Amino acid sequence: MAPPTRIILLRHGQTQLSVDRRYSGRGNPELTDLGRRQAAAAADRLATGALGPIDAVLSSPLARTMTTARAVAEQIGADVQVAEGVIETDFGAWEGLTFAEAAARDPELHRRWLGDVEAAAPGGESFAAVGERIAVAREDILERFAGRSVLVVSHVTPIKTMLRDALGVGPELLFRLHLDLASISVAEYYPDGGSVVRLVNDTAHLQ
After folding, report:
1. Distance in angstroms (rounded) separating the CA atoms of residues 13 and 28
2. Which uninterrupted H or E stretch holds 195?
3. Are strands 149-154 and 5-11 parallel, antiparallel or unpaired?
4. Cα(189)–Cα(195) distance, rounded to whole angstroms?
5. Where are the domains of the chain?
6. What letter would DSSP give residue 10?
C-alpha cells in the first residue's frame, strides 16, 4: 500500500567504442557528438516530467555516464551524485577489443562467458560479481531514497542486472535483453519487498 521507490535507469550516450562495437568497461572514453545529442534528448524528455518527478540524480563515475547525467541534472536543477556501485563490468584484457578479437584471443573462455555468469574475462569481473555489487547499490538507493524517484545513469550490464532482479528472473536475461544507447528503463520497489518493471529500453526521445 505504501508508495514505491522508483529507479529510472538511463544508459549513457554513444562513445567511439560504441561506434566500433568494442568492449567498453572501465576504460573512460568521452561521449561523441552524437552521444552528447542523445544525452540532451534524454534530458529533454526526463525534464518534462513524463516519467514522473526526479528527486535525485546518481551516476557511475565514468566520463560517459557523468556527462549524460549532468545533461539531465542541468535541466532539472539537481546535482549529480557519484554511485561507484553502478559502474560498468570490468572487462579486463578484453577492454577495447571487438567481439571477434576477444573470441580469437581466448576462444574457450569467451565461449563460456557468453552463457556463464561465473566466467570472467582475464583480469576482469564476472557478471555474478556485478550482480553482488548491484544488489548492494540497489539496497543503498532504496534506503536513502525510500518512496522517492531516483535517476541512475549507468551502463548495459548494471542496468540489465537491476531489471533482472526487479523481474525476479534468471541470468538468461543478461544474455538476451538488448539495451540501446541513451535508452530509459524503469523499475519500482515496494517496502514489502515486491518490485515491478514498468519500462524497458525506451528510446522514443531519440526518434
Report:
1. 13
2. strand 195-202
3. parallel
4. 4
5. 5-206
6. E
- Compute the mean pLDDT over every residue in the chain, rounded to the nearest whole number: 96
Quick: pLDDT tens for 129-180.
999 999 999 999 999 999 999 999 999 999 999 999 999 999 999 999 999 9
Q: Which fold has domain 5-206?
A: Rossmann fold (3.40.50)
The vertex-35 CA angle with 87 and 72, nearest 5°, equals 70
Query: Would you name the residues annotated as active-site residues?
Result: 12, 88
Largest CA distance in the chain: 53
Which cell is 139 given? Answer: 539496497
Chain centre distance of CA 156: 5
Q: If you ran DSSP here, which 8-state letter would residue 150 be given? A: E
Cell reading at 143? 534506503
Q: What is the pLDDT of residues 99-108, one digit of tens each?
A: 999 999 999 9
Cα 96 to Cα 119: distance, rounded to the nearest angstrom: 19
